[in-house]
Amino acid sequence: MPKLESSLSHLLGGDLKKAESVLSKLDVTEDEYVKGYRDALQGIVNSLNSQDRKSFVFRLSGDAQFLRNELTRLKETEEAHLCTEWDLGYFKCWTSYLEGLLRVSASVKKQ
Length: 111
Fold this sequence. Notes:
111 residues; mainly alpha; 6 helices; 77% helix; globular
């Protein structure tokens, strides 16, 4: 998990290449939770690389209220379903990503 969290950190810091590099070196024999987290993170990276404007990643703006609403919606979806370990990892990655975007948004406003 630390390498995945490191990759997410690079992604939130704007270093897509470093995030990809860390992600590409991960062992693929992790447990289901870690696989879900990794798959979500890989999807985010792929969307950013391909500049897929239809993807969820590109609908996210720097608007803190919008990000909070999406975070709430994501958490409600997770709570409303019977989730596998893979699902929990997947949702955790997305909630961590949205929380990170909120932190970035808040720090930009302070400047």
